[in-house]
Design a protein that fits this description.
Length: 339
């Protein structure tokens, strides 16, 4: 590595980008400034182009020509934020790895504080959002509710109001690279790993430009992934409502039999019958649905597909990262062809 020659520890900054042409030049500018302020550390910037449809990849490639700190992982299509982050972690060579969004919502200055904590011996330094200006009231409330619910049902405590903006030591990164699951909820996986973790509060900025790449559909999927990957409580819950409805049904059955044996009113009761059928039918569908979610996940995991497909690596030594744990399908094009 070019950096090992100077014998400074290496910091990798991983930046997932999806259709970020509007904000990217400013991000690159601010990251450059950040790198210049940094002392005692070499830096590599690992960008993941998550199958952008705009000029994101061209902007990154241009930047890579002028700057040998830059590495690019170009996906063959859009694989989603969590997978993009995973690819960055897989390829990063740093003694510490920082995850940061491309939209400048996570201020690069905070990384200085993260590095300080890392030097003090912490393995994970994660940013906790104290303020989130510029987000819709809907996003704020659902996110708040989600992190609290997740923490209640999860078997490992997952810090509240904490995104992926964090620094991780090599030990954590290597552990993460050995975790092969397809449904990836990176912040939860890092909590599961353990080691010495600490939070630093920061004020999350507004998106510098462009729109959120997390529409409601992706948000729900992300939330469901988080809960189902870290808890089997929904299964217990469905057993619970199954039991409750069975008890109610039992009372109904006793009542119906008594009516039949002891009175003359037994032809009536169509309404009660319908309610019982619909209620129990509904409960059953919910429980089967919950079960189905888990079975679907088992199916997905068991296929054992690579997590992502890389179309091109740019700026890496010998054109590709030194190692993989999940052996993604790679179609490496020569650097010269790209320039
Ligand atoms: N992102 C990505 N792939 C996706 C969606 C998002 O790589 O499919 C990136 C995006 O470019 C950004 C980060 O993930 O750097 C966070 O996304 P965004 O800012 O849209 O999410 P929000 O901050 O609104 O939750
Ligand atoms: Mg954002």
């Amino acid at each position: 590595m070019e950096n090992s020659a100077v014998n400074k520890p290496l910091l990798s900054i991983v930046i997932p980008c999806y259709n970020e042409e509007e904000v990217l030049s400013e991000t690159l500018f601010q990251l450059d400034r950040f790198c210049e302020q940094l002392s005692g550390l070499a830096v590599e910037l690992v960008f993941i182009d998550d199958g952008s449809k705009d000029k994101t990849r061209d902007i990154l490639k241009n930047y890579a020509i002028q700057n040998d700190r830059v590495r690019i992982i170009g996906f063959s299509r859009n694989f989603g934020h969590q997978i993009a982050v995973t690819a960055g972690i897989d390829a990063a060579n740093g003694d510490a790895v920082v995850l940061i969004d491309a939209d400048l919502q996570d201020p690069p200055e905070v990384i200085h504080q993260m590095i300080e904590k890392w030097r003090e011996g912490y393995d994970v330094v994660y940013g906790t959002r104290t303020e989130r200006p510029g987000e819709s009231a809907f996003k704020l409330t659902t996110a708040r509710g989600f992190y609290r619910l997740l923490n209640r049902v999860s078997d490992v405590p997952i810090p509240l109001d904490t995104g992926d903006f964090r620094l991780m030591s090599r030990a954590v990164v290597d552990t993460l690279r050995a975790m092969p699951e397809q449904a990836r909820f990176v912040r939860g996986m890092v909590s599961w790993i353990g080691f010495k973790q600490i939070s630093i509060p920061y004020k999350r900025a507004e998106r510098f430009a462009g729109e959120s790449k997390y529409p409601l559909r992706k948000m729900i999927r992300f939330a469901v992934d988080g809960i189902l990957s870290f808890s089997t409580k929904p299964l217990q819950f469905s057993v619970g409502i199954g039991l409750v409805s069975a008890c109610i049904a039992l009372v109904g059955i006793v009542y119906a039999i008594m009516l039949r044996l002891l009175t003359n009113y037994w032809v009536e009761g169509w309404t009660a019958l319908m309610i019982a059928i619909l209620f129990i039918g509904g409960v059953q569908l919910i429980c089967v649905g919950v079960l189905g979610e888990y079975v679907g996940r088992i199916y997905n995991e068991i296929k054992g597909r690579p997590l992502y497909v890389v179309q091109e690596y740019i700026g890496f030594e010998q054109n590709k990262p030194p190692y993989f744990t999940r052996s993604p399908v790679v179609n490496i094009k020569k650097n010269e062809e790209n320039n």
